[in-house]
Write a structure and sequence with these properties.
Oligomer: single chain
Largest sheet: none
Distance between the termini: 201 Å
Number of helices: 10
Number of strands: 0
Shape: elongated
């Protein structure tokens, strides 16, 4: 139908006459619909603007796709480069609780300090003692025989303490087995046994180095290793001439000196690796036995007599010989005077 001014007037009158209820309900449209409507409006009014807007939209979409593809491509490339790298260990970041860290925790971040363990020092000392006395690497035969060699020292030491207890409590009537006289007599028998046995053991420790030299263990060391075997008896046997207290102290120092020498040569490879630990254990028991004997004798030092030592006997022999010479000289003078 051709549109004329008359026909347009009729249509306007009909649209104004339609009821309000029949008017379409307007809903809020989305931005895309608005954009399309604007695009339609622009298409009706400005075709060039529509073409420009459409080209901008296509350009933006293409730019977003290009950026997305580049990002994805960069991630894949980075992952390939990381895959070629070699993993490096970091043990300082691993602990007994590193696998149970909370999700919010950071790897390598120090945990809050816990309350100090009051028994940590005692536990550390016990661990050190257990490691020190660990003789797993020592041959069983040497371990058994070495401990058996300590038994005479421990026996004489305990017997010395028992005798000292009997002598100390003799006046109170609380003695157990021996009288004061019997305990003192037994104590004087124990003195040369303990001192003489100590001298024998010290000499034996020096002889071990002669055996290692002859066996060629650690190579031939010559005079330095022979010297250890000579110094040991040179220090040990003069102690039998000293009073018992001084003899025990001198032997205690000699045992410690030989232990120091044995640990040094063990580090140098002159002896088996376990020899230093082995000597420490034996020296510990022997030194403890000597200290116990000295403590026991110190409690009764003013209540017992002292047996004459070899030096005392030598001095007594000299004095007797000098007195006998004087007596003979006096008798000879007297006989000469009588003859005259």
């Amino acid at each position: 139908m051709l549109r004329t001014p008359a026909s347009r007037a009729v249509l306007r009158s009909l649209s104004s006459a339609s009821p309000r209820s029949q008017r379409p309900i307007l809903h809020r449209v989305s931005p895309q619909v608005q954009w399309s409507s604007q695009l339609c409006t622009l298409s009706a009014t400005r075709p060039q603007a529509v073409a420009l807007a459409a080209s901008k939209t296509v350009a933006n979409t293409f730019a977003r796709q290009l950026v997305t593809s580049r990002v994805n491509h960069a991630d894949i490339k980075a992952e390939k480069e990381l895959g070629k790298q070699k993993l490096e260990p970091h043990p300082e970041l691993v602990s007994s609780t590193s696998s149970i860290h909370p999700i919010s925790g950071e790897v390598g971040v120090k945990e809050p300090e816990k309350e100090p363990d009051m028994l940590a020092g005692m536990k550390g000392d016990l661990k050190t003692i257990s490691e020190t006395f660990n003789l797993d690497n020592v041959p069983q035969q040497a371990y058994v025989i070495g401990l058996a060699g300590v038994i005479p020292y421990l026996a004489t030491s305990l017997a010395t303490v028992a005798c000292a207890y009997e002598i100390h409590n003799a006046g109170t009537g609380s003695s157990l087995l021996l009288s004061e006289h019997s305990a003192e007599l037994l104590l004087h028998i124990l003195e040369p046994l303990q001192v003489g046995y100590g001298a024998v053991i010290i000499s034996f420790l020096g002889a071990i180095h002669w055996g290692l030299e002859w066996a060629g263990y650690g190579g031939t060391k010559g005079y330095p290793r022979y010297a250890i075997g000579v110094i040991a008896p040179a220090l040990a046997w003069p102690t039998i001439l000293l009073p018992v207290e001084y003899a025990l102290i001198a032997q205690f120092l000699t045992f410690n000196f030989l232990y120091y020498a044995d640990t040094r040569v063990a580090r140098m490879g002159w002896t088996p690796p376990w020899y230093g630990t082995y000597r420490f254990v034996l020296t510990f028991f022997v030194g403890a036995a000597i200290v116990v004997s000295l403590i026991g004798r110190g409690q009764i030092a003013d209540r017992i007599g002292k047996l004459p030592s070899p030096a005392d006997r030598i001095n007594e022999y000299r004095e007797n010989a000098a007195a006998e010479e004087l007596a003979n000289a006096a008798a000879a003078e007297t006989a000469k005077e009588n003859e005259e």
